[in-house]
Q: What sequence folds into this?
C-alpha cells in the first residue's frame, strides 16, 4: 500500500531529525556529524541534496522550518549548547554565485548553559518567534522584531521547568479563545518529580507564560510531543512518545470572569498503545489531525486513526525497510481503511519518523548501514 525508497543521505553519523517544509517539497536532515542537509523534491518524485554544511560543533539534535511567509528559514539546535537560525538567499547579480541559492547563518543563540534539545518556530499568527528547550530545564522564547532582519533576535521569555527538557510543541490553534500555549516534555531520570509533561499558557495580564497543567500520569521519559492541528475544535489533542504512545484530550474548563490565572483543563487520556513494545521516539500528525504516526525501537512506523466513536486503532504498520508487517495480533498489514485526504496527507504525518534521538538509537533500529539513510513513504499514485 505504501512505496518506500531509501535516500543515500551520505551523513557520516546518526541522523537525529528529519523535517519537511510547509509544502512538503523540501526536507532537512541533521546528524551527529554536525551537519545539516537540505533536500528538494524533483518533478519525478526523486529527492536531491541541494545544500550541505557544518552547522555546529556538536551533534545536531533537531532542525525545523519556519513558515514560508518568512522566507526559506531553518533553525537547528545542538549539543554544543547553541541554537542557530539559517536563511537561504539567492546570489546577487554582481556576485560570483549569481542566481544560485546558498544558506547563511543569521544568528547564534547562546543563552543555554547545557545541550539545546529541541527548537520550534511558533505558529505563524504569533509572528516570527522561536522556542528552544534545554537540558538545564529552561524554555526560551525569542522574537525577531523585524522579519526582514533575521540577525536580530530578542529573548522574550525564560521559563524554568525544573526538569531536564527533551522536546517541545506549540498548540497551533489561532482561535482568539485559545491563548498561546505550548507543551514541554522531559526525559529527566529524577523520579521525585512526577509528571514529565507540562503545559504552559500565555497570560495577557501578566504578559508571561504560566504553568496551566502537568500531566501527572506521564512518569516515564518523554522523547517527543506533538499537538494536533486544531481545525476549530474547542479542546486540544496532544500526542506523547514515551515507553508507549499516548493521546490526551485537554478540555478547557469555563473561566470565571474575574479569574486572572491560567486556564484549567480537564485532562482525558483517549488512547494508549504499547504495540511498539519498546521506546517510542517520534509522534507526528497529518495536516487534518485524523492520522497519527509513531516510530519506535521495534523498527516500525505505526499509523493510528480514530473512528466516529473516537476509538483509536492501528491502521497500518510499516517496517524500517518499507515493507508492510503482518502482526500476529491480526493487525492490518497496511493502511486499508484510510482514504481520500487522510491518505494524501499521511506522508506529512511521517515527518521525522526516520530520525533517531540524542545519539541513542534510531527509532527504526535498522541495520547499521541504514542509520544514515532516511526513508520516504508515499501512498500509491492511484489514490
A:
Amino acid at each position: 500500500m505504501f512505496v518506500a525508497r531509501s535516500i543515500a543521505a551520505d551523513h557520516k553519523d546518526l541522523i537525529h531529525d528529519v523535517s519537511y517544509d510547509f509544502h512538503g517539497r523540501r526536507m532537512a536532515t541533521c546528524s551527529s556529524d554536525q551537519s545539516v542537509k537540505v533536500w528538494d523534491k524533483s518533478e519525478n518524485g526523486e529527492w536531491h541534496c541541494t545544500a550541505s554544511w557544518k552547522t555546529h560543533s556538536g551533534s545536531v539534535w533537531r532542525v525545523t522550518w519556519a513558515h514560508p511567509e518568512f522566507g526559506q528559514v531553518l533553525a537547528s539546535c545542538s549539543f554544543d549548547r547553541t541554537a542557530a537560525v539559517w536563511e537561504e538567499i539567492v546570489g546577487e547579480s554582481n556576485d560570483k554565485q549569481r542566481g544560485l541559492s546558498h544558506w547563511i547563518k543569521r544568528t547564534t543563540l547562546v543563552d543555554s548553559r547545557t545541550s539545546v534539545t529541541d527548537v520550534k518556530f511558533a505558529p505563524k499568527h504569533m509572528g516570527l518567534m522561536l522556542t528552544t528547550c534545554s537540558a538545564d530545564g529552561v524554555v526560551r522564547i525569542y522574537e525577531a522584531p523585524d522579519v526582514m532582519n533575521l540577525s536580530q533576535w530578542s529573548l522574550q521569555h525564560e521559563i524554568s521547568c525544573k526538569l531536564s527538557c527533551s522536546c517541545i510543541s506549540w498548540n497551533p490553534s489561532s482561535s482568539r479563545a485559545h491563548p498561546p500555549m505550548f507543551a514541554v516534555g522531559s526525559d529527566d531520570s529524577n523520579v521525585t518529580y512526577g509528571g514529565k509533561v507540562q503545559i504552559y499558557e500565555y497570560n495577557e495580564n501578566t504578559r508571561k507564560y504560566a504553568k496551566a497543567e502537568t500531566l501527572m500520569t506521564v512518569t516515564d521519559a518523554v522523547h517527543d510531543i506533538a499537538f494536533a492541528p486544531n481545525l476549530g475544535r474547542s479542546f486540544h489533542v496532544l500526542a506523547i512518545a514515551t515507553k508507549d504512545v499516548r493521546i490526551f484530550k485537554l478540555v478547557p474548563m469555563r473561566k470565571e470572569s474575574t479569574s486572572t490565572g491560567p486556564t484549567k483543563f480537564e485532562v482525558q487520556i483517549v488512547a494508549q498503545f504499547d504495540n511498539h513494545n519498546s521506546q517510542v521516539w517520534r509522534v507526528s500528525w497529518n495536516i487534518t489531525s485524523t492520522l497519527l504516526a509513531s516510530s519506535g525501537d521495534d523498527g516500525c512506523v505505526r499509523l493510528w486513526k480514530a473512528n466516529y466513536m473516537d476509538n483509536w486503532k492501528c491502521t497500518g504498520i510499516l517496517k524500517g525497510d518499507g515493507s508492510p508487517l503482518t502482526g500476529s495480533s491480526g493487525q492490518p498489514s497496511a493502511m486499508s481503511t484510510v482514504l481520500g485526504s487522510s491518505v494524501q496527507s499521511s506522508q506529512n504525518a511521517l515527518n521525522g519518523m526516520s530520525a533517531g534521538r540524542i545519539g541513542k538509537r534510531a527509532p527504526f533500529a535498522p541495520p547499521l548501514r541504514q542509520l544514515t539513510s532516511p526513508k520516504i513513504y508515499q501512498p500509491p499514485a492511484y489514490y
